[in-house]
Amino acid sequence: SSGSDAGRVIKMDSSIRQKSVELSRKVEESPQDITAWLALIDHQDVLMKAGDDRRRITSAEIKSTAEIKIHMYEKALEKMVSLQDRERLLLGLMAEGTKIWEVKVQSDRWEKISQDNIDSLLLWTSYLNFKQSTFTIFRYEEVREVYLKPPSRMRVKTPEWSCIDSFSISCSDLRSSYEKLDTQNWLLRYGKVFLR
User: Fold this and answer.
1) CA pair distance 107, 190, nearest whole angstrom
2) Considering only CA atoms, which of 32, 104, 111, 110 is closest in space to residue 75?
3) pTM over 0.85
4) Tens digits of per-residue pLDDT, 94-105?
5) SS3 helix, strand, coil % of the chain, rounded to 5?
6) Pair 92, 73: CB distance under 8 Å
C-alpha cells in the first residue's frame, strides 16, 4: 500500500541521513584517514539517489553532487601527507571535474597537479593520457613537452624512462619525416606551376 511504501521511504531516508552523520564524524575524528574521506565522498552518490537506484537522476543533480564531491576532495587533500593518498584523491577529484569543468579548465588543473606532484608517475601518466586523448586541445608540441618532463624519480636511466625516451625520439623522427614528406608532396604538386 501507499502508506507502507511511504513508511519505508522515511525509514530509508532516516538511515541515509544517519550514515551521513556517522561518516562526517569519522572524518572529523580522523582527518588523515583517507578511507573515511573516500567513504564520505562516495556516500554523496547515495544521497543524490535518495536510496532509490531506479530514480532518474537529472543533469543538475549530477553537477551539484560533483561540486560537493570536489569540495570534499579538496578538503581531504589539505589533510593528506603521503603521495599515495594524494594520488587517489586527485584522480577522484579530476574524475568529478569532467562533469562540470570545460576542457581548458581540466587541462590547466592537470598541468598544475603534474607540477605540484613531480614525484608521481601515476599522476604524470594520467596527465599525459588526458593530453593525448583530448582531441580538442591536442597539440603535438605540448604532448612532446610533457614526455620530456617526466617525474624526477624517472629522470635517472630506469627501464621506464628509457622506453619513454626512445618513444619521444621516435615521435620526433616521425614528425620530422612527416614534415619532409609534406614538403616533397607540396613541391611535386605545385613545383610544376612555377616551372611552366
Assistant:
1) 39
2) 32
3) no
4) 999 999 999 999
5) 80, 0, 20
6) yes
